[in-house]
Design brief:
CATH class: Alpha Beta
Order of helices and strands: HEHEEHEEHEHHEH
Number of helices: 7
Number of domains: 1
Helix content: 40-55%
CATH superfamily: NAD(P)-binding Rossmann-like Domain
Structural class: alpha/beta
Strand content: 5-15%
Distance between the termini: 71 Å
Number of strands: 7
Length: 223
């Protein structure tokens, strides 16, 4: 990976959030309350191969949020909250548009969650502030696993990334992606990976199906 591209990722992903914090925190402190939500990644807890610059930037965002929380507390601004959201794989065009110097085509590492679900998590954090929120059961399991068996998790994730994140039989041209210029086309929120919708919706539909089945069985018994 060219050094200038490495530096560009850190400049955008880290300094972009620094500028955002510097712009909004004075207003929140002035009004005496408010919420700043920084979006990191599960890659900000568990690093992955082939994405060193990205992972470094996401680790840095967690550190930024922690430092800001500490400073606000010391200054007496306890009603100004800083929260960090750590999603797993989200169904966005990131995987098609990111820089890629691996020589292999990239695909989203499953399970992939919908942008709607991610937006719902952020809204939930604004309503009920928490320091950090990991999005998705697999992402939460991965974070816990990395704490319990870090060496094993490191080896396992390296293997998964090599086998499931990068196609073994599909080559790709080396590209800086959208690091310097926007991707062509009208743009889109979805990446076409068929991300999972909210778990609550699935649970509701499952519960409804089970209830319907139970009622049908009860009717047969009564007959």
């Amino acid at each position: 990976m060219p050094l200038e591209d490495f530096r560009r990722v850190l400049e955008v992903n880290v300094m972009g959030y620094v500028h955002g914090a510097r712009a909004v925190l004075p207003y929140l402190r002035n009004q005496g309350s408010g919420m700043l939500v920084n979006v990191s990644s599960v890659a900000g807890v568990v690093a992955k191969p082939y994405t060193a610059a990205y992972c470094m930037s996401k680790f840095a965002l967690r550190s930024l949020s922690t430092s800001l929380r500490q400073e606000l507390r010391l200054e007496g601004d306890r009603k100004v909250k800083v929260c960090t959201v750590l999603p797993g794989s989200i169904d966005t065009p990131l995987f098609q548009q990111a820089a890629n110097y691996s020589g292999r085509q990239v695909r989203a590492l499953p399970p992939v969650y919908s942008p709607d679900r991610m937006a719902g998590v952020i809204v939930g954090v604004v309503r009920w502030p928490r320091r950090e929120v990991v999005t998705g059961p697999r992402a939460r399991n991965l974070v816990m696993q990395s704490k319990l068996v870090p060496g094993f998790t490191e080896r396992l994730l390296a293997r998964q990334m090599d086998r499931r994140h990068l196609f073994r039989d599909r080559t790709a041209a080396l590209t800086s992606g959208n690091l310097y210029e926007p991707a062509l086309g009208p743009g889109s929120v979805d990446g076409g990976w068929h991300g999972r919708r909210k778990t609550a919706v699935r649970r509701t539909l499952t519960a409804a199906a089970l209830t319907t089945g139970a009622v049908a069985c009860a009717r047969r018994v009564l007959r």
